[in-house]
Amino acid sequence: MRACPISKIECVPLGVAYHHAGLAANDRTCIEQLFINGAVQILCSTSTLGIGVNMPAYMVIVKGTKEYTDNNYKEYAQSEVLQFIGRAGRPQFGPSGKAIILTEKTMVKSYQNLVSGSEILESSLGPELLRWILGSVYSREFTSTSDVTKWLSHSFLAVHAKKNPL
Description:
Layout (H helix, E strand, L loop, with lengths): L15 E4 L5 H12 L5 E4 L1 H6 L6 E5 L2 E4 L2 E4 L2 H8 L12 E5 L5 H9 L8 H14 L6 H9 L2 H8 L3
Parallel strand pairs: 1-2, 3-6
Antiparallel strand pairs: 4-5
């Protein structure tokens, strides 16, 4: 991998970095590699990293369960929150992982039910699929149809469709 200019930013040599859709594609890739290689131990990100990129971690902290959209705050879809916390603990990277969800008091029971598996989930990607694909093409995260196919095949929508075909 070529030199990573973003690795010179003040916080990165201390093991802390940020990741969001506004970064140039090369910078995002660089930060992801620094995280995978262990040079970055704390990665602060927007929801785009939690959904679109396979970046396992020992611990995931979801700092708030609402997103600002259409001039209003709305609760993330439960499947999105599962995507976020699903980054914590992967067998090939360690024996365990931890996920912490910070939410409003009125939502605590809902998230307890979610992580315990007592809630039935449906994928929310269907209605948003075109937006995610176009956004990823625009940000150059997808540069070919095989990129889209690979990403989609690993989504909850694909897993759910395989288990419950029409």
